Amino acid sequence: MHSNGHHPIAPEVTVSEFTEDILQRHASTGARYRRAMVVFGALFALGVVGFVVRAVGDGFDSRLPWGYFAATTAFLLTTAGTAPVLVIGMRAVKAHWRRPLARIAELYGAVGVLVFVMFLPLLFLIPSAENRPTLYFQGERFHTLGRIPGAPQVYDLLLLAAMVIAAVGMLLVSRRADKAVLAGRAGAPATGWRGTRKQWKVQAVGLGLLGASFFLAAVGAVSLFSIDFAMALVPGWRDAIFPAFQMITGLQGGLATVVLTAFFLRKYGHFERYIHMENFWAPSKIMLALTLLWFYFGWSGFIIFWYGRQPIEQNLMQHLFFGPYEWFFYSAFLLCFVVPFLTLLWNGVRKSTGGPALAAAFILVGNLMDKIRIYVGSFAIPNDLIAEHALEVVPPIHWPDVFDIMMMVGGVSGALFLVLWMARRVPILSLWEMAEGIRLRVVRPFLRRQVTVLGKPD
Amino acid sequence: MAHMLGLFKEEEAAAAANATEALEQAGYTNENFEILTGSPYPEGSFGEREAKHKLYVFPFLGALLGFSAAMLITGATQAAYPLVVGGKPILSLPAMTIIAYEGTMLGAILFTVLGIFFESRLPNLNAGIYDPRITAGYIGITVQVAEERVNAVEQLFQRAGAADVIVKR
Prior knowledge:
heterodimer, A: mainly alpha, two-stranded antiparallel ribbon, 16 helices, B: alpha+beta, Alpha-Beta Plaits, four-stranded antiparallel sheet, 4 strands, rod-shaped
């Protein structure tokens, strides 16, 4: 059987081979893994120090010193926070290639807890919705006597909480069966999980329901965050497309996070036997589509200001695109659209493990640039100006100081530390989901080559 | 009554399917026996009936409660300040939409999580007969039998190819 230049089909593996191998790897922690945990843990601690120094030194009266912290929170929300979306969609359409990526995406759900904690201090930095143009339009200025209590903070908090509960819920539900396997090997008593047909059925349906709920909550949380912590803080910025654009960056960033993690896991964790080229090829097509959507939504928002060119929009364009943060805008445009598009355009690049991972790395850096442009710029507007009709003066660029850098590096490291820590508690590849797939896959000869045959029970 | 567990090796999954058939021929119905596996098999692989559950009810109930609570908060807030603005109704729905959406989502998610645990009967420290080999890939078939039929069912499991049969009285 020869391949004639075709990509070789991944050989079959049995469920017991796979389970034993993963359990063996799970039982021991390599030196490199421990080093990574120590480094990320130390950097996270450094970020906490940066946060404490900033809080003690600057307090929460002015938003300006917290711009980079807000940008980091938004970056984590739209990358690690939205990563579970991939597994939700692919489970819904019963895509087999999702299996090795599913647990990676679920593990990032735990980062939602960190995002939630980082989000709490930000609530003290924005004023109430009273007498300023927000989604709530309340106060004497808008001729309303009625008040929606706690707006906007309480409602931002509720939706983010819903998103985090759904993400953590998915992780917990998915890990129960694997936890039973780990407990069984350790000789620990089962706590109720027996693997009955009903329990498997409830798990499948539950993951579907939680997944759908997570997606709906994530769309709302990312949209509200972008409205209340960016758009509503800049006078004259009214853009109905911006929240949707931010969600697109979230889907793109979430997918890029999973693909890049899978690449590192395959290369440095030596999971080549289970994470194959097709596990990069398939999501790379979605990544290409999301890259095009990034441009479409970004352009749709931009073109309104560009053609409108009203005095109110001129300064806004300077503030958001061509003014003090222009290099952040150009970097985001280049790294989130131009480079991934020109890279993923070629099937040869998509049909590899390194190509999609490289595009994912560019996307993540671009996402961070985009968040700095948006949130640092928005946080530079003082409270007494945010309710004005238009942005009269474009504030100068606010460069990060050493504590900003500590918080940014610490935030990202904290997310990675959390994922590494969780991966010690639950196998990095889902035992039950992979086993289910292994049983349904066989490799058979077909004329002069080999093909994969997949069973589809539903 | 005795609880019995027939254990079948993973590579002999067909033997487990044969055992459920033999159990049915011996007069036991789908309600009498239970299949236990360490990872999911396609539904009906062992000839069992579709597992029934009521999980779909939970998110709907949660969504309904969350939605009602949100409408109550926003409606009561507007009713507390009954001022007509621009000819618009006192109870203005657009102003209630975001909070209603949030209440609905939060209620649905919380009830789904609760529903999963309730429908899976977890945690349950006295869940019945079990063997840790199931987590290593073995397929278990549990059945509740009358004392006088223990030997017959044990032979039935063994004839079908069980690797082990456990009886708990």
